[in-house]
Structures are given as C-alpha cells and as structure tokens.
C-alpha cells in the first residue's frame, strides 16, 4: 500500500505517510533503547529523562504534551520486562 494521506493520532493529516511512519517508528525505537538502557543501568527515571537527547523529535506534534508520559510508561514497561527475564 502506498497511501497518499494518513490520519495521525497527533497533529495535521499526513501528506507523506511513509516519512511520518518512519519517524514514528524511529521515535518508538529510540524511546525503548534509551529508557531500556537506563533501566539496565539502574538509572532513576528523572535522571535518565533529563540526560536523554530528545532534540530529533522535539518538533513532532504533541511532543511537549506526550513525550514525558511516553518515556515514563516505556521506562516502567522496560523495568517489568527486565524483571521477567
């Protein structure tokens, strides 16, 4: 499928779905990698969040409103996954 438009969860309708989906995938992978590393190294969330370079994603719609919540949720999920190993 090669859609021309995509209704996103945040922001305007995407007119470049492939690019926007790739950015979302990259963000989610980065979120898991950065929070996962913090969990593995026993870095508290506040410190991990403050030290993470979010600049690549800072202009994504709703970043300011949602990123901290996303990061914390991912941090907790990564803790749970680590404990399950």
Task: Write structural notes for this entry.
With 85 residues, this protein is mainly α. The protein is built from three helices and no strands. The chain has helices at residues 17-40, 45-51, 63-83. Helix 1 (17-40) crosses helix 3 (63-83). The protein is elongated and about 45 Å long. The model has no long low-confidence stretch (mean pLDDT 92).
Observed structural traits:
mainly alpha; 3 helices; 85 residues
Brief characterization of the structure:
Helix content is 61%, strand content 0%. The protein is built from three helices and no strands.
What is the number of helical segments per DSSP (H or I, 4+ residues)?
3
Give the overall shape, derived from the CA principal axes. elongated
Provide the succession of SSEs.
HHH
Helix content: 55-70%
Question: Could you tell me how far the N terminus lies from the C terminus, measured between alpha carbons in angstroms?
Answer: 37 Å
Average predicted local confidence, pLDDT: 92
Please describe the biggest sheet, giving its number of strands, its sense, and whether it closes into a barrel. none
């Amino acid at each position: 499928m090669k859609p021309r438009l995509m209704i996103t969860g945040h922001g305007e309708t995407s007119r470049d779905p492939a690019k926007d989906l790739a950015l979302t995938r990259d963000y989610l992978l980065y979120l898991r990698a950065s929070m996962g590393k913090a969990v593995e190294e026993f870095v508290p969330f506040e410190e991990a969040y403050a030290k993470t370079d979010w600049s690549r994603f800072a202009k994504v719609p709703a970043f300011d409103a949602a990123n901290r919540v996303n990061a914390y949720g991912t941090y907790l999920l990564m803790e749970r996954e680590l404990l399950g190993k």
